[in-house]
Each structure stands twice: as structure tokens, then as C-alpha cells.
Amino acid sequence: MKKLICALSLSFLFFGSQAPANPLSPEAENVFEVLSTYYATDNMPIDAMLSKGVSTDLGTTFEVKFRGYDREWVTGRLEIPKGVQKPAVVILLHGLTQSKDQWWREEGQYSFPSQHRKTLVENGVAVLALDARNHGDRKEAKDFEDPYTYVKKQYFEAGSKMISETALDVRRAIDFLEAQGTVDTNRVGVAGFSLGGHIGWIASSVDHRIDRALIMAMPIIGNGPDLSPRFTEQQLYYPGLKDTPVMMIIATDDIFYTVQSATKVFDGLISKDKELVIIEGPHDLPISSAEYSKSFLADKLK
Questions:
Q1: Quick one: average pLDDT of 40-63?
Q2: Residue 89 DSSP class
Q3: Is residue 223 scored above 80 in pLDDT?
Q4: Cα gap 162→148, rounded to integer Å
Q5: The pTM is what?
Q6: Quick one: pLDDT at residue 157?
């Protein structure tokens, strides 16, 4: 399995040579302007449901459901910190094969995101963790039993659509939060891991209500086998991120990118505030990485 993953990472996750030399050239701006029309949204009424709140040591959690722009239910979990009126909020986006529960799971592989959530709530920031399409409570009979099938079978076009559609769900999540009025939607951040990092990258580019983006171990999507660009390639979204602070966290031994390819993506980003953090180790980041949720998100959104 590891050999398969490594082969796939080399064949399609490596950032291709076709990236524009100047990502903010008039041509790049025009491409983004056209691309962003896909993510344009209508002012649709909110159709949502919240469970009764459950008290925790840190605050109160609510299971939530709201309709996306295509009327599909989006599922998530909202946690409001104790003693804070109208807190800032961070939207949490999980990795492939995971769910919103990843941000609460404290044991096992890929459980480090739970420490990020704890750190945010302990520092007075609300969180809304979403299930990506085809994941968690959003899995349906039509879905693959294992979402990793998208990678294993090289269904890259379908995977790209899953990413973009979930980015639209993030936009709708902010609409939902605005309608609820329990958090301050003038202070919104995104934290995404792996698949969630890619979703968060796009969502932050196309929705300027997102103030800060923490992008962790994001796979680097390159050109297709015929060198044609994929519409979810990260460099296509540079123009939308030029005014958004972005922190990228990458690992030295990650199988879904190389330090060189991730650094190339970072270097092309023109932002008023950007930072690259390189951590020794694999795709499964250490719990100590949660310090960046505090310094880059919680401290700056207060």
C-alpha cells in the first residue's frame, strides 16, 4: 500500500512545470476571475437544524445540519467556548477518509487535529467542523465504501469535484453562522488538514469573509498526465489569496508532496502575510503543531 501511495504521489500530486511564472499577471487574474464564477453563490434562505447543546469542560457542542447551495445536507459540529460572547470562529476541515470526528478523536493515527481544536476553544475561539462530501454523516449508498478509492483508483476528476463542492459548502457554512448570530462572522478562520487543507485553500481564495487560513500537509495537485491543468490546482487560486494571511505547515517526510514542491506552491503565493513552517516527520503531524493554531489563528482573530 505504501508503494502504491508513493507512486501516486509522484504521478499526480507533484506540482507540475506549467505553473505561471507570475501568478498575478493579467492572464492569471483573468483566469481566476472566470474560475471564481463557479464558486459564486445566491442569497438563499437558510434551512438548518441544531441539536440540543451538550456541555463539555471547554464549552458547549451542537450537532448541526444545513442545506448547501445544491440543497444537499451539510453536517457538522459547532463548539462554543465557555464565557465568551460572540467569539471568533474557525472552520475545521478534516483529511481524506476521516470526518468531523477527527477534530475530537484523541487516540490513534491522525488524531493530532484534536489538539488544534482544544487549543482554539481553550483560547476563546469557537469551531465549526464540517464533514466533507462523501465523508462522515454525508456518506450515502451511492458513495464508495472507502473514500480512499478516489486515490487508489485514480479517480482524480471526481476527487477534484469533491474538493470544489466542499469548498462551496464552506461558503454556505459561513452563511449559516451569520444567520445563527452566536459567533462573530467578522472574525473567521479556516484550519484544514490534508484534503481539508486543499478545501480550505480554495474556500479562502473565493470567500473573503475568511480572514486567515492555516493549511496543514496539503497534497500538491499538479498537471494531469496530458499536462492540462486541473481546475483545483492550487496556483490557479493565488489571485484570491493575495490579501489573506496564509500559514502552510509541511512535513519533511510526507508522501503526498516533497518539501520542494510544497515550497514552490508557497513561493508563488503573494499574500500580505504568509508563513511556511517545516516540521520533521511524516504526514501525521505532531500534536505540538497545535501551537500554530494559537499563534496564527486564536491570537490574531481576537
A1: 94
A2: E
A3: no
A4: 12
A5: 0.90
A6: 84
